[in-house]
């Protein structure tokens, strides 16, 4: 096995035991990056000199007995909306031509403090305002979309071109590409991970979180991202869910879902009963308002951030993002305020739901990765939906309510494409969603090979 194929947990243990040097690990991951970049395009920019220097520094520190923790010497990718001092934060846009960040974002500073090795910036849909990431192709089929907007981060992790990566999630932008590329993605509780130094899309909905190969890896990264003084993530028990109540929505989450996705998720739920969990049918609070509330928050907030540049240089935006930003100028203030009120009511309703169950489990995305260039999805009930609307539909409730949501792979469709299952918990319920996800993966595996074929 090449070092690039190791999970974060495996690589961290080997580095700590001095069985693997950060220098050799980083060199292996960069070799993999060079192999996949021309075909799949996960990276917007590669900081080779920075990475090699950081790996050498980590190796020296560890050799001198100065091991800092589980991320020390571990190479990672950073979504290109997250600032690193001296590097460009291009956000996938011509608007940011010539940009250089003046300071580290909070998360970049925390990862640097943990001794992690930055490889470079991963591609994003322009300003994180889309679910495709057109610069990047799917890790399992280069004729398919990577998903977005953290598509570059997901593909880097899936192919071994990063041992872990960070993304952002406003309507599924961590979980969608994670599910479509067969990796793990965690959207933490709103506000748990700081967003200082991260280019905003929507202040009310934005989250920062990890993309990894395993649930245990996600727990390690989360611990470093939450910073000193945060509650530690408890050890994850192996394969036991005794006493856990898992809510299975009987509305919304299984509507307009492909048969293969539904079958894989329901099979995973059945397996969870074998681990001691109890399945409980639940409704989906305020489901009919999800799209209106999500758009009522996101669209005007995105336009407010881009107001000056949209007025001065509209031609620098891609057509799909420009039309969304221009649409935001037509949203009345009253509609945004009503969306804010509905957001509060929806959050309260979901919190009441978690008095009945410990987690809610559902599909992450209603279909597997679509072909590049395909714009719509047709469902058996005769309805047609845009690919972007389909991707965001099952993820948006966790953004509106701010609850933690974890996606992990639970199988593949007949074309060999990954299928993801989403686990949602109460606010600050990361320990329980990580426990459930890890218990499932420890007993049954993650449903796809550990690393996609490069």
TrEMBL record:
Residues 24-434 form the Amidase domain. GO terms for molecular function: catalytic activity. Pfam families: Amidase. Gene3D superfamilies: Amidase signature (AS) domain (3.90.1300.10). InterPro entries: Amidase (IPR000120), Amidase_CS (IPR020556), Amidase_dom (IPR023631), AS_sf (IPR036928). This is Amidase. It comes from Streptomyces benahoarensis.
């Amino acid at each position: 096995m090449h070092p690039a194929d190791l999970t974060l947990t495996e690589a961290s243990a080997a580095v700590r035991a001095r069985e693997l040097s950060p220098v050799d690990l980083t060199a292996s991951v960069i070799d993999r990056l060079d192999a996949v970049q021309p075909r799949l395009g996960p990276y917007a920019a590669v900081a080779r000199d920075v990475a090699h220097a950081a790996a050498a520094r980590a190796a020296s520190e560890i050799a001198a007995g100065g091991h800092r923790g589980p991320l020390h010497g571990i190479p990672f990718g950073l979504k290109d909306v997250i600032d690193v001092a001296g590097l460009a934060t291009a956000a996938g846009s011509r608007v940011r031509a010539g940009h250089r960040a003046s300071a580290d974002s909070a998360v970049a500073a925390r990862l640097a403090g943990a001794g992690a090795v930055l490889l470079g910036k991963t591609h994003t849909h322009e300003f994180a305002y889309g679910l495709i990431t057109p610069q990047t192709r799917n890790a399992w089929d280069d004729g398919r979309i990577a998903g977005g907007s953290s598509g570059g981060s997901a593909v880097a992790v899936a192919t071994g071109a990063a041992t872990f990566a960070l993304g952002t999630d406003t309507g599924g932008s961590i979980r969608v590409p994670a599910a479509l590329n067969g990796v793990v993605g965690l959207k933490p509780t709103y506000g748990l991970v700081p967003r200082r130094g991260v280019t905003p899309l929507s202040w009310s909905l934005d989250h920062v979180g990890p993309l990894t190969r395993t649930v245990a890896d996600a727990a390690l990264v989360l611990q470093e991202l939450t910073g000193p003084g945060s509650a530690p993530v408890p050890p994850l028990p192996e394969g036991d869910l005794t006493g856990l109540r898992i809510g299975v929505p009987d509305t919304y989450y299984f509507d307009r879902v492909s048969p293969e996705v539904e079958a894989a998720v329901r099979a995973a739920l059945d397996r969870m009963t074998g681990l001691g969990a109890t399945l409980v049918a639940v409704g989906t609070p305020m489901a009919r308002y999800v799209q209106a509330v999500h758009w009522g928050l996101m669209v005007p907030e995105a336009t407010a951030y881009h107001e000056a540049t949209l007025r001065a240089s509209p031609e620098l935006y891609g057509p799909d993002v420009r039309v969304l930003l221009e649409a935001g100028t037509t949203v009345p203030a009253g509609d945004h305020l009503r969306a804010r009120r509905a957001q509060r009511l929806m959050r309260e309703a979901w919190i009441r739901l978690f008095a009945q169950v410990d987690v809610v489990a559902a599909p992450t995305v209603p279909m597997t990765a679509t072909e590049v260039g395909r714009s719509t999805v047709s469902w058996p009930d005769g309805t047609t939906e845009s690919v972007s609307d389909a991707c965001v539909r099952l993820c948006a409730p966790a953004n509106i309510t701010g609850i933690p949501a974890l996606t992990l792979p639970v199988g593949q469709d007949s074309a060999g494409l990954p299928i993801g299952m989403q686990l949602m918990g109460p606010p600050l319920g990361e320990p329980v969603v990580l426990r459930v996800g890890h218990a499932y993966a420890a007993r049954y595996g993650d449903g796809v090979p550990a690393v996609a074929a490069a």
